[in-house]
């Protein structure tokens, strides 16, 4: 039929892909309109001030792929016309997105960073700090520099400074009660209390109207009031700023770092303690301790020494600073065991008492250090409530004080003997009481004693006869014995406390054995040169040392053969020592020894090696030991 053929041709001219594209575009447009309506409703609720519960966004609609019945291929002339590309220079086509594609949401621009001067409190902090510093400098100038230049009179200067300071404190309290007045109030109060403190210092130091002890009592009240206000406001920065201002500008009022300044800074160390206890400001311990410690060290360095009266005043101040730091640390850490700042402040407070002994004769310095060590060790032993960090600090300071005793009393070989003797006592005590803290003190003494021993018995004294005759003496023998004992006690104590395992203890015993052999060689050479202060005595001493080395090696091997529990360690150490003795015999003794001493060294060493070999072979051939290879544990 003609009409049917025309309709079929018209149907064949429709592109199914275009139909699918239009269907997808319609679905996408429907989803966008729906989403736009929801967002508009949310915006209306927000503008009306009503709370909005934002619902979850509906899932993106993806239209199903259209299905079409198979369409017969149209003849080439009946195909749908293709859309021609846009002409050159035409604007890009902005049609709807393709099927299943949604436009990417527009990213909101990043917020512009606020300038620093617009941030909350930034300008207030800067202006308040600058104003406080400038005002305090002006107060100090009025009290000191104006007095030197003759401006005004003493009474107007003092009264004016006091009135200005009171006004600043009152203004700070008033400003703090207003919104946004925090930083200005801190600066005003700090300036006011510091000005009052300087006014009191000037009254006693510059004008000498009242004695220093009375001025210290009044200064304690002023500083305590300032820190109490900081605690009331719960503003640690006020206390820190007050301490810093007094520490920095106080030397201007006292005309340098003097004992009077130390006394006023000692008041500053004491005054903040109640507030720190109340507010648990951990860092305040260090802040209030550092100024007086630095000032006191400067005084100790500049003092003329004994019998200068300043030395005694410095000693009293150092003792007060140390006791105050110790008492504060014990009290604060008993309440707050995590307060590490108090432990650090305790260590800092002990520095002046450790340094002030240099201003006295050696015996006086030794007494000061000994009393310090006894007090601190007593605290460690009987104060059971202090935490481990403070115990470590106190024990460390006590150890340093005891080291000072050895250095003050001793000299040369005596220092080495005292240090190594203390090391032996502490190391054995650590094993008995099973305390790592005591072991640490013993190791410190061992290290210091080892350095002193290296100076007392240098390697050159064991190589050159003239050096040995000049340097070695009875002190070298005592120090050598103490070194050997301390070295083995250190390994034994570390092993008993579980600090080293069985795998590494052999290496430590080998190191201790090396130290003992060095000491044994020094002892033999010292005895030889003491009997005959000539090269003959030196040679005889080295001959005895070589025989002693080989004898020790043989004894270690025999001990290992008869002790299965220590067989591997003992036999290994013996073989290493025998090898070292042979190296010494062929590379040193052969060139240094002469005459019968050389013959005796070779004969005795050879006989000992033969004995060790025979005994070793016999024990290994015994039925009970044949299954254990040499150097292995049974």
Written account of the structure:
There is one protein chain. This protein is an all-alpha fold and 634 residues long. Among the domains are: 125-275, no CATH class; 534-634. It is built from 23 helices and no strands. The protein has helices at 2-12, 16-48, 122-149, 154-176, 182-206, 212-233, 236-253, 259-270, 273-279, 284-302, 309-335, 340-349, 351-355, 362-382, 388-409, 413-433, 436-456, 465-471, 474-496, 502-531, 535-562, 567-592, 596-621. α21 (535-562) runs parallel beside α23. The longest helix has 33 residues, at 16-48. The chain is flat and about 110 Å long. The model is unreliable at 1-8, 52-58, 66-84, 86-100 and 626-634 (pLDDT under 50).
Mean pLDDT: 80
Helix-strand makeup class? mainly alpha
Low-confidence runs of at least 5 consecutive residues: 1-8, 52-58, 66-84, 86-100, 626-634
Number of helix segments?
Answer: 23
How are helices and strands ordered from N to C?
A: HHHHHHHHHHHHHHHHHHHHHHH
Calculate Rg over CA atoms: 44 Å
Biased composition (Pro residues): 64-75, 83-111
Region (Disordered): 64-111
Pfam families: DUF2339
Keywords: Membrane, Transmembrane, Transmembrane helix
């Amino acid at each position: 039929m003609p009409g049917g053929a025309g309709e079929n041709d018209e149907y064949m001219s429709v592109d199914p892909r275009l139909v699918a594209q239009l269907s997808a575009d319609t679905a996408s447009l429907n989803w966008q309109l729906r989403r736009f309506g929801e967002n508009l409703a949310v915006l209306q609720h927000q503008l009306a001030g009503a709370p909005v519960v934002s619902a979850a966004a509906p899932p993106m609609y993806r239209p199903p792929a259209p299905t079409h019945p198979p369409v017969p291929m149209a003849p080439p002339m009946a195909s749908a016309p293709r859309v021609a590309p846009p002409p050159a220079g035409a604007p890009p086509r902005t049609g709807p997105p393709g099927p299943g594609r949604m436009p990417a949401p527009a990213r909101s621009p990043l917020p512009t960073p606020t300038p620093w001067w617009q941030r909350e409190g930034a300008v207030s902090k800067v202006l308040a700090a600058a104003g406080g510093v400038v005002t305090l400098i002006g107060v100090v100038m009025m009290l000191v520099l104006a007095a030197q230049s003759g401006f005004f009179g003493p009474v107007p200067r003092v009264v004016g400074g006091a009135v200005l300071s009171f006004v600043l404190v009152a203004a700070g309290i008033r400003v703090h009660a207003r919104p946004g007045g925090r930083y200005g109030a801190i600066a005003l109060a700090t300036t006011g209390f510091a000005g009052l403190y300087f006014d009191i210092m000037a009254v006693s130091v510059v004008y000498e109207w009242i004695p220093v002890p009375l001025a210290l009592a009044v200064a304690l009240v002023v500083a305590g009031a300032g820190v109490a206000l900081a605690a009331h406001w719960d503003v640690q920065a006020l206390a820190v700023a007050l301490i810093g201002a007094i520490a920095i500008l106080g030397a201007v009022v006292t005309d340098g770092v003097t004992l009077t300044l130390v006394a006023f800074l000692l008041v500053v160390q004491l005054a903040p303690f109640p507030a720190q206890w109340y507010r648990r400001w951990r860092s305040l311990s260090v802040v209030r301790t550092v100024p007086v410690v630095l000032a006191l060290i400067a005084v100790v360095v500049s003092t003329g020494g004994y019998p200068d009266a300043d030395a005694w005043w410095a000693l009293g101040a150092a003792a007060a600073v140390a006791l105050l730091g110790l008492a504060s640390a014990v009290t604060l850490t008993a309440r707050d065991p995590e307060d590490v700042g108090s432990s650090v402040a305790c260590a800092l407070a002990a520095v002046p008492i450790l340094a002030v002994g240099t201003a006295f004769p050696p015996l006086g310095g030794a007494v000061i250090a000994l009393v310090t060590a006894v007090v601190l060790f007593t605290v460690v032993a009987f104060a059971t409530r202090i935490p481990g960090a403070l115990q470590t600090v106190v024990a460390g300071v006590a150890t340093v004080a005891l080291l000072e005793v050895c250095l003050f009393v001793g000299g040369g070989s005596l220092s080495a003997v005292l240090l190594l003797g203390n090391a032996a006592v502490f190391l054995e005590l650590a094993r008995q009481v099973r305390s790592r803290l005591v072991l640490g003190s013993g190791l410190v003494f061992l290290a210091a004693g080892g350095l002193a021993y290296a100076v007392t018995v240098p390697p050159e004294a064991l190589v050159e006869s003239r050096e040995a005759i000049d340097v070695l003496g009875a002190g070298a023998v005592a120090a050598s014995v103490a070194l050997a004992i301390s070295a083995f006690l250190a390994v034994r104590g570390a092993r008993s406390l579980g600090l080293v395992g069985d795998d590494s203890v052999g290496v430590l015993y080998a190191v201790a054995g090396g130290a003992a052999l060095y000491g044994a060689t020094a002892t033999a050479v010292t005895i030889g040169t003491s009997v005959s202060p000539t090269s003959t005595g030196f040679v005889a001493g080295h001959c005895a040392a070589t025989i002693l080395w080989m004898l020790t090696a043989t004894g270690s091997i025999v001990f290992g053969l008869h002790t299965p529990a220590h067989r591997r360690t003992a036999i290994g150490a013996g073989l290493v020592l025998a090898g070292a003795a042979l190296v010494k015999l062929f590379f040193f003794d052969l060139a240094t020894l002469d005459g019968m001493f050389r013959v005796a060294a070779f004969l005795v060493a050879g006989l000992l090696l033969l004995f060790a070999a025979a005994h070793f072979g016999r024990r290994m051939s015994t039925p009970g030991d044949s299954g254990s290879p040499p150097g292995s544990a049974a």
